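RECORD TYPE: inverse folding
INPUT: structure tokens
STRUCTURE:
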């Protein structure tokens, strides 16, 4: 009973749902706090935590999940940099881009934003980032800019050489990046958070909503909506975009990027929703027939998967690519899940599909895309390679493969692949 009441208190204060975070996590945190306070049992602890703000803060620290790392879902950062250089800056000459990262945890996310924008050549005076989190401990680490190995994941850590100084077994972030972000303690459920301030052009709110109750999610979306500029973009975690769409934001159909525009207000104003944000001038879209067309010559591949398509018309190998209806449904479902950002589920389905349809070009391509979005570049390379082995003229696989290969140090092969893609594009 006391534990249930503590769970309710936590839900009211920071929104975490015991169901989502796991009742065991809360029970463990409570037991730690009972011991730390030298109390006899949970009942005595409930009494204390109900009346002491200080103890509530300790409990919150014990419950929160600060898990994060640099360039988590790196596609989002590439998309951000392209959007800011290609769309935002030309429309806002002389303005300073306002970015909010909430929750920012130990700073890896806001600093990744800073590095991505700096790498894109965006001047120091053209952007500013604010990082907000409920945890003082996490904010303390963010301000120190000192990170251990756990903050660096994935196979491209080239940014570490450019922006960090190794100090024994830790890494110190350089002052140029650190000065781009300011850290503030705050609660995303707080209706007064940044009240009266200018709205943000970009908000990152990733990997928090999944832990919140439905009511807390609603309150969080209210805050985000209030803080986001009318033309602003909201970045979410891969399992969170759908909830934002259901709440009223407009999903941006960019593969591996889980972002939304502020659609609702546009609808209220009677404007046509602007669903397609092109991260790049070379935006590719699926034709009804299921093939991709280039609108302009390609640079960095960028894929929109917003049409469920029929697998059998995608390949030039009709025999091996005409799965039965159940199989087609499986592939379409994998495609749909990938589109809505449920990458792991999409991966599982696509793997099952490939088990039955091992020479299906488009399934290999989709596997490549999913692995690319998950930062598994080695696996992505394998699948794109298989796709072009099965269909040497598979333009999108060639393009994606060229970028993955280049990223992994294969400059020459990347150039060769890009030329092949170029020739295919010219012959179409
Ligand atoms: C998993 S981290 C996410 C960090 C980062 N956005 C990312 O995706 O890597 C979740 C963070 O949410 C913070 N948090 C939990 N409840 C919060 C609330 N109500 N308001 C603000 N921050 C909160 C926690 O302290 C923790 O640092």
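DESIGNED SEQUENCE:
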């Amino acid at each position: 009973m006391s534990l249930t009441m503590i769970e309710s208190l936590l839900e009211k204060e920071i929104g975490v749902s015991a169901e989502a975070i796991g009742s065991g996590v809360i029970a463990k945190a409570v037991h730690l706090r009972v011991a730390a306070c030298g109390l006899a049992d949970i009942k005595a602890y409930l009494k204390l935590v109900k009346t002491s703000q200080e103890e509530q803060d300790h409990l919150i620290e014990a419950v929160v999940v600060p898990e994060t790392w640099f360039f988590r879902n790196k596609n989002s950062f590439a998309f951000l940099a392209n959007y800011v250089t290609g769309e935002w800056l030309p429309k806002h000459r002389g303005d300073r881009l306002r970015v909010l990262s909430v929750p920012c945890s130990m700073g890896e996310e806001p600093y990744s934003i800073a590095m991505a924008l700096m790498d894109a050549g965006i001047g120091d005076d053209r952007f500013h980032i604010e990082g907000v989190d409920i945890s003082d401990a996490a904010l303390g680490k963010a301000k120190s800019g000192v990170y251990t190995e756990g903050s660096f994941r994935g196979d491209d850590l080239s940014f570490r050489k450019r922006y960090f100084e190794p100090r024994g077994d830790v890494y110190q972030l350089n002052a140029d990046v650190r000065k781009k972000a300011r850290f503030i303690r705050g609660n995303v459920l707080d209706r007064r958070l940044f009240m009266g301030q200018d709205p943000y052009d970009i908000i990152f709110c990733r990997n928090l909503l999944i832990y919140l109750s439905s009511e807390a999610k609603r309150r969080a979306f209210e805050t985000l909506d209030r803080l986001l500029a009318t033309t602003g973009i909201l970045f979410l975690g891969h399992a969170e975009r759908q909830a934002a769409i259901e709440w009223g934001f407009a999903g941006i159909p960019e593969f591996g990027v889980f972002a939304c525009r502020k659609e609702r207000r546009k609808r209220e104003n009677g404007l046509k929703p602007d669903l397609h944000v092109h991260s790049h001038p070379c935006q590719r879209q699926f034709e009804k027939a299921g093939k991709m067309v280039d609108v302009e010559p390609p640079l960095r591949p960028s894929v929109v998967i917003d049409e469920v398509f029929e697998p059998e018309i995608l390949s030039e190998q009709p025999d091996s690519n005409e799965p039965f209806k159940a199989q087609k449904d499986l592939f379409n479902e994998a495609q749909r899940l990938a589109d809505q950002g449920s990458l792991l589920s999409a991966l599982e389905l696509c793997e099952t599909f490939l088990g039955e349809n091992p020479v299906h070009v488009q399934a290999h391509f989709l596997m490549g895309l999913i692995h690319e979005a998950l930062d598994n570049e080695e696996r992505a390379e394998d699948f794109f390679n298989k796709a072009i082995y099965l269909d040497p003229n598979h333009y999108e696989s060639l393009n994606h493969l060229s970028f993955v290969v280049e990223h992994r140090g294969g400059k020459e092969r990347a150039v060769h692949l890009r030329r092949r893609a170029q020739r295919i594009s010219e012959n179409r």
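NOTES: Residues 14-15, 64-68, 72, 103, 105, 109, 133-135, 138, 187-189, 206-208, 237 surround S-adenosylmethionine (CB under 6 Å).
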